[in-house]
Amino acid sequence: MGINILFACTGNTCRSPMAAGLLGHLLPSDRKSAYTVSSAGTHAAQGSPASDQAVAAMKAIGIDIAGHRSRQVNKNLVEKADLILALSESHADFLKDHFPDASGKIFLLSEYAEKSKAKQDVPDPAGGNLEEYQETRDQIKRYIDKIVRKM
Predict the structure, then answer these.
(1) Is the pLDDT of residue 86 over 70?
(2) C-alpha–C-alpha distance, residues 32 and 75, integer Å
């Protein structure tokens, strides 16, 4: 069945779809089938596309997230996930408050990647320009690269 990894942000239109796209892209070909990678938002509207800037930032590095549609995090997604990576501490706190039984598998992305207690949020680029989205993408990629190397 494999390992199910869920990324979580606020609206599920910027950071978490970029993170899921990056991890899916960066996993070695021979390991892709061992993982299910998805994303959801703590306050997402159901079915919204990824933001135009997020799509453009990812397209610039050869990753297509244009087909992404947002969804609200829910009990079923949390229960199915083996690992939940939040893009900010407020997301991790929300998830732990609403799904206390899952607290042991919820981590801040930076904390999980760095394997330390150092916590660094990935800033929300919503409403920003393409350069801000690219900076966010690159920050997420640095964390994902570290995680992939340890897989």
Answers:
(1) yes
(2) 25
Positions marked catalytic: 9, 15, 124
Q: Are 35 and 67 in contact (CB under 8 A)?
A: no
Query: For the chain, what's the residue count?
Result: 151
Residues in CB range of 65: below 8 A, 6 or more apart: 17, 18, 20, 21, 50, 54, 55, 58
- Give, in order, the Cα–Cα distances in Å from 32 to each of 24, 58, 96: 7, 19, 28
For tokens 């990894």, name the residue. Answer: 5
Looking at the whole model, is its pTM more than 0.90?
Answer: yes
CATH of 3-150, one of 3.40.640.10, 3.40.50.2300, 3.30.420.140, 3.40.1190.20: 3.40.50.2300
